[in-house]
Protein backbone atom coordinates (compact mmCIF):
# COMPACT_ATOMS: atom_id res chain seq x y z
CA UNK A 1 0.00 0.00 0.00
CA UNK A 2 2.86 2.42 0.80
CA UNK A 3 6.25 2.56 -0.92
CA UNK A 4 9.63 4.11 -0.05
CA UNK A 5 8.67 7.46 -1.52
CA UNK A 6 5.52 7.59 0.58
CA UNK A 7 7.58 7.05 3.73
CA UNK A 8 10.04 9.75 2.69
CA UNK A 9 7.31 12.35 2.14
CA UNK A 10 5.45 11.50 5.35
CA UNK A 11 8.72 11.83 7.28
CA UNK A 12 9.01 15.32 5.78
CA UNK A 13 5.48 16.11 6.99
CA UNK A 14 6.44 14.80 10.44
CA UNK A 15 9.45 17.16 10.46
CA UNK A 16 7.02 20.04 9.96
CA UNK A 17 4.84 18.72 12.79
CA UNK A 18 7.88 18.55 15.06
CA UNK A 19 8.66 22.19 14.27
CA UNK A 20 5.08 23.11 15.18
CA UNK A 21 5.49 21.24 18.48
CA UNK A 22 8.66 23.23 19.25
CA UNK A 23 6.75 26.44 18.46
CA UNK A 24 4.00 25.42 20.92
CA UNK A 25 1.49 24.87 18.11
CA UNK A 26 -0.61 21.74 17.69
CA UNK A 27 1.87 19.42 15.95
CA UNK A 28 0.45 18.92 12.48
CA UNK A 29 2.63 19.03 9.39
CA UNK A 30 1.97 18.74 5.67
CA UNK A 31 3.82 18.64 2.38
CA UNK A 32 2.52 18.93 -1.19
CA UNK A 33 4.33 16.79 -3.75
CA UNK A 34 4.13 17.51 -7.48
CA UNK A 35 3.53 14.85 -10.11
CA UNK A 36 7.29 14.76 -10.78
CA UNK A 37 8.01 13.94 -7.12
CA UNK A 38 9.25 17.33 -5.91
CA UNK A 39 8.05 18.87 -2.65
CA UNK A 40 6.49 22.14 -3.78
CA UNK A 41 4.77 23.18 -0.56
CA UNK A 42 5.34 22.76 3.16
CA UNK A 43 3.21 23.75 6.09
CA UNK A 44 2.74 23.32 9.80
CA UNK A 45 0.13 24.65 12.15
CA UNK A 46 0.89 28.31 12.88
CA UNK A 47 -2.42 29.51 14.27
CA UNK A 48 -0.89 31.16 17.33
CA UNK A 49 2.00 32.71 15.42
CA UNK A 50 -0.24 34.38 12.85
CA UNK A 51 -3.30 34.86 15.13
CA UNK A 52 -5.20 33.19 12.31
CA UNK A 53 -7.62 30.28 12.78
CA UNK A 54 -7.08 29.28 9.13
CA UNK A 55 -3.29 28.87 9.48
CA UNK A 56 -3.50 25.08 9.43
CA UNK A 57 -0.64 23.01 8.03
CA UNK A 58 -2.66 22.01 4.96
CA UNK A 59 -3.72 25.55 4.08
CA UNK A 60 -0.18 26.89 4.38
CA UNK A 61 1.23 24.01 2.30
CA UNK A 62 -1.40 24.59 -0.40
CA UNK A 63 -0.61 28.32 -0.51
CA UNK A 64 3.11 27.67 -0.88
CA UNK A 65 2.57 25.03 -3.56
CA UNK A 66 0.26 27.31 -5.56
CA UNK A 67 2.81 30.10 -5.37
CA UNK A 68 5.69 27.83 -6.39
CA UNK A 69 3.74 26.27 -9.27
CA UNK A 70 2.14 29.61 -10.22
CA UNK A 71 -1.25 27.96 -10.40
CA UNK A 72 -4.22 27.76 -8.04
CA UNK A 73 -4.92 24.25 -9.26
CA UNK A 74 -2.59 21.57 -8.02
CA UNK A 75 -3.42 18.99 -10.68
CA UNK A 76 -1.50 15.75 -10.18
CA UNK A 77 -0.22 16.76 -6.74
CA UNK A 78 -0.46 14.74 -3.54
CA UNK A 79 -0.59 15.94 0.04
CA UNK A 80 1.05 14.07 2.90
CA UNK A 81 -0.28 15.24 6.26
CA UNK A 82 0.21 13.93 9.77
CA UNK A 83 -3.44 14.33 10.85
CA UNK A 84 -6.66 13.82 8.92
CA UNK A 85 -7.75 17.19 7.49
CA UNK A 86 -10.61 19.13 9.08
CA UNK A 87 -13.61 20.29 6.99
CA UNK A 88 -11.99 23.63 6.11
CA UNK A 89 -8.78 21.97 4.92
CA UNK A 90 -10.57 19.12 3.18
CA UNK A 91 -12.60 21.54 1.08
CA UNK A 92 -9.50 23.62 0.33
CA UNK A 93 -7.92 20.41 -0.99
CA UNK A 94 -10.95 19.86 -3.23
CA UNK A 95 -10.77 23.44 -4.50
CA UNK A 96 -7.05 23.03 -5.22
CA UNK A 97 -7.77 19.82 -7.16
CA UNK A 98 -5.28 17.74 -5.18
CA UNK A 99 -5.17 14.21 -6.60
CA UNK A 100 -4.54 12.28 -3.38
CA UNK A 101 -4.32 12.82 0.37
CA UNK A 102 -2.18 10.50 2.47
CA UNK A 103 -2.61 11.06 6.20
CA UNK A 104 -0.98 9.41 9.18
CA UNK A 105 -3.76 9.28 11.74
CA UNK A 106 -7.47 9.92 11.96
CA UNK A 107 -9.02 12.86 13.78
CA UNK A 108 -12.13 11.40 15.39
CA UNK A 109 -13.33 14.86 16.50
CA UNK A 110 -13.00 16.95 13.33
CA UNK A 111 -11.71 14.69 10.54
CA UNK A 112 -13.31 15.28 7.15
CA UNK A 113 -11.65 12.53 5.13
CA UNK A 114 -13.71 9.70 6.57
CA UNK A 115 -13.96 10.13 10.34
CA UNK A 116 -16.93 12.47 10.88
CA UNK A 117 -17.36 13.64 7.28
CA UNK A 118 -15.91 12.63 3.96
CA UNK A 119 -15.76 15.85 2.00
CA UNK A 120 -12.94 14.78 -0.31
CA UNK A 121 -14.83 11.82 -1.76
CA UNK A 122 -18.26 13.49 -1.91
CA UNK A 123 -19.70 12.78 -5.38
CA UNK A 124 -21.87 15.92 -5.13
CA UNK A 125 -18.74 18.06 -5.46
CA UNK A 126 -16.97 18.72 -8.74
CA UNK A 127 -13.74 16.99 -7.67
CA UNK A 128 -12.97 13.93 -5.57
CA UNK A 129 -9.69 13.00 -3.95
CA UNK A 130 -8.19 9.58 -3.37
CA UNK A 131 -7.42 8.86 0.30
CA UNK A 132 -4.85 6.61 1.94
CA UNK A 133 -4.34 6.53 5.68
CA UNK A 134 -2.22 5.00 8.41
CA UNK A 135 1.31 5.79 7.15
CA UNK A 136 3.57 6.33 10.20
CA UNK A 137 0.42 6.49 12.33
CA UNK A 138 2.14 5.69 15.62
CA UNK A 139 4.71 8.48 15.24
CA UNK A 140 2.05 11.06 14.47
CA UNK A 141 -0.14 9.88 17.35
CA UNK A 142 2.77 10.00 19.80
CA UNK A 143 3.62 13.56 18.81
CA UNK A 144 0.02 14.66 19.33
CA UNK A 145 -0.30 12.79 22.65
CA UNK A 146 2.97 14.23 23.95
CA UNK A 147 1.87 17.74 22.99
CA UNK A 148 -1.51 17.55 24.69
CA UNK A 149 -0.02 15.79 27.71
CA UNK A 150 2.38 18.74 28.14
CA UNK A 151 -0.63 21.08 28.17
CA UNK A 152 -2.38 19.32 31.09
Describe the structure.
By secondary structure, the protein is α/β, with parallel strands linked by helices. Helices cover 40% and strands 18% of the residues. It has helices at residues 4-22, 47-50, 57-69, 87-96, 137-151; strands at residues 29-33, 39-44, 78-83, 100-105, 130-133. It has a 5-stranded mixed β-sheet. The relative contact order is 0.16.
Question: What brief labels describe this structure?
Answer:
alpha/beta, 5-stranded mixed sheet, 5 helices, 40% helix
Give the topology, please.
Blueprint: H1 4-22, E1 29-33, E2 39-44, H2 47-50, H3 57-69, E3 78-83, H4 87-96, E4 100-105, E5 130-133, H5 137-151
Parallel strand pairs: 3-4, 4-5
Antiparallel strand pairs: 1-2, 1-3
Quick recap:
By secondary structure, the chain is an alpha/beta fold. The protein has helices at 4-22, 47-50, 57-69, 87-96, 137-151; strands spanning 29-33, 39-44, 78-83, 100-105, 130-133. It contains five helices and five strands, in the order αββααβαββα.
Helix and strand pattern: HEEHHEHEEH
Tally of separate helices: 5
Number of strands: 5
Shape: globular
Largest sheet: 5 strands, mixed
Strand content: 15-25%
Amino acid sequence: MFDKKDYFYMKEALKEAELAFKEDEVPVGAVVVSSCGKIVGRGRNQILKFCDPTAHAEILAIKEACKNLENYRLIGCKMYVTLEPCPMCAYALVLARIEEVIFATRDEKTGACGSIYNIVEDKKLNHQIKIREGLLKEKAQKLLKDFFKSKR
